[in-house]
Specification:
The chain is of the alpha+beta class and 846 residues long. Helices cover 35% and strands 25% of the residues. The strands form 14 sheets. Strands 2, 3, 4, 5, 6, 7 and 29 form a 7-stranded antiparallel β-sheet that branches. It has a 4-stranded antiparallel β-sheet with strand order 9-8-28-12, with no helix packed on it. It has a 4-stranded antiparallel β-sheet with strand order 18-19-21-20. The radius of gyration is 35 Å and the shape is globular.
Length: 846
Amino acid sequence: MDEITALPKKIMENFEAYCKKHGLSGKHREEKLEQLKKAFEKYKYEPGEAIGVIAAQSISEPATQMSTSPYEKIILKRNGVINIVEIGKFTDAIVEEIGKNIDEWDVSDISSAGIYVPGITEEEKVEWKKILAVSRHKTPKKILKINTFSGRQIIATDSHSFITRRNNKIVPIAGSELTMNDRIPVMKYLPENCIETVNIRDHISSPLKEQYGLLTSTWKSKPVPTTIKLDFYFGWFIGAYLSEGACNGSQISISNIDETFITNAKIFAEKIGLDFKDRKYIGEFGNGRSLIINSAILSKFIISTCGAGSSKKHVPYFAYSAKEEFVSGVLKGYFDGDGNMHSERNLIRVSSNSKELLDGISLLLARFGIFTYKKENKHQSGLLIPYKYAPIFLEKIGSDIPKKKLGLEKMAENTKDYWNNKSQDFTDMISGLDDLLYKVAKKLKYPTRYVNNFTKRQKIGRTALHRYINLFEKIAKEKDIDITQEIKIMRRMFSSDVVWDRIISIEYIKPDFEYVYDLTVEGTETFTTFDGIITHNTMRSYTMASQADRLSKVTHGLPRLIEIFDARKTFEKNMIIYLLEDYNTKDKAKEIASKIKALKMSDIVVYDSIDLVNLQIEMELEKESYKDMVKELLEKHIKDCDVVTRGKNIYIKPKKDNVKNLRKIKSKVMKLHTHGVKGVDNVVVIKEENDWIIQTTGTNLKKILKVDGVDIARTKTNDIYQVYDVLGVEAARNMILNEAKETLDEQGLDVDVRHLMLLADMMTFDGTIKDIGRYGVSGKKASVLARANFEETKKHLVNASFYGEKDKLEGIIENILVGQIAPVGTGMVELAIDMEKMNKMRKPKE
């Protein structure tokens, strides 16, 4: 049995027992097993995960094209290993293999592939989130380039959804709405993910011999371990190579005059059993020293994973997934080689000819919560680390170079009073705090003039926030005032895993690539670029089930707006059922859920077959108590058949002997509704704050409102027509308004509610529900010219000619088109003048 269709042991045991009980063997057994495999594959999913991408609703309008440049690198994790890849190459490979084209978008569902990206949660923490789908579409004529104060950059379409902070919440915002000095999140902490070893052979293409866990290239070559442990000294050696090393394919050279630096390199070489030469010399710039390790295998491995040449070096992929010990070694080796600890300037700095290398070093520093600022000039790239991170750097990374260690210790000493004195940090500012500080100050009767500036400017430095947290807690304790919730929000702001980076430039550029790309991610729908910028995936949403509503397929974003204003009757329908206070318990919620869930015959029949000898249908029911109900149901809906019951078994024999007819009858029988509320296909009970609620797939508002225990005031459906039929047109109008408002609010879009009220009124003013499309309400614009003016001009003119329509030119558009006075303003008034009477009334001249 292949891996895909392998069934769990317990299921196979139950299946074998079933076959034995019913005497199934040979071909019949294999058919049943195949059905079981298909059902298992169809319904299996991982606990706590989204069930998958159901559909990609889309319209090819510029406002929905929310994607990034193909060269944007992203951070991926699969099977515990982190990789850095270009989003274009990653998506192209998937789309070309399993992609589908939907409304000019190439879309691929990869929800079952187990690939994760770092994203931000509502608690402002960075966590690994599963990628549900990848997509691409044609590049628009212009594209947006955004640069931030910390030296980050992202290129995306102007309607790509970014993340910002408003009213103490994480909300999406379109790139076109961003302005200078707005702040977007940049990751400062990468969640730890550990692998312990790396296999050398996986990274060398040339033939190697392996024996007893050792690799050799020739019979004379010194063996190298097949697998090397990712410990401190291996990490240090990688960092030392990235800063002070060179490779030529047969040997590795590490150059530095410091004794400890060379000693660490020797320790690593000895650990893996390699010989080395310690060469001292006088060079062009003074004394020099190099440790040379002769090993073609290790040299090729280093070139393959770390690159060669100062401008082409990069952090090896396995470093991102390694233990903290290895990462600490990499950073110590690198900064001991190329780093500068400026205690007098309170700054840690490093520079390189390779931007990719420094981007990788920046990401490794994020493992310890250290945020870097990136600088570039014509010749080199650089990283700057503010001195407030010196204590973390000293503790987690440190330095073996005496002068550098002393500089670190001085900076760490300088930060002792950093968080408590009136130090200012103008770079690490937190925005979108609403009136939180003002309200707390008011509550504590603390002078609000001290916090008015933060409220007015809507930003506060992390250091200032820390001081106010301590101050407010102290005052609250003295005055015995409860500010627990407010302090909780402030601590969440202070301990967030991101820095809110200020935008310093926004410009449009002309793209030089064919496609732009996007990911669909679970949870808060965010992902992080290699540069650290966290972005939101599109408003052009996919329909998916989250952990909270895994059985209820809820459409969001633009597709939901289309459903509302198109007044669609066919879409993924669902309900949220609230319960009355006396029924608001888990057990009673489950009882009601099981009562309302619709069951068909296929749900209560455990075995069915067609007896070709007696030309009858045989079925075995799940419970014998069902037999009377089932018999009554069959006699009502299946005509010209005899129904006989024996225990759990039901026998259906048509009066006309026909095999083809038997199959039709069986298919019809299995679809018959037996229990529950028709239309409610599935249910799930979840707790939402203090309420136990029932979420459903499918809806039947009329029947649900009659169920005992249901709170009819709060229970709701997303089917406008059911609301209209049960509660009337006013309720339908209110639902259109509320659903549209909620959908726009979810996406962080601020639309004046009066616009939505006007649309809702237009759709329902005559007592029925009408859709609004490109041609007005239900395409009923009376004027032919007005309809032709918008789109598909030829179509409307031809149709009007064919049916002999007349245009009375009563509207504004059609009158402007033909050059007449439009019925607006003074043009709305028609005057007739009797010239004869007017002349008589005029006074004769004397």
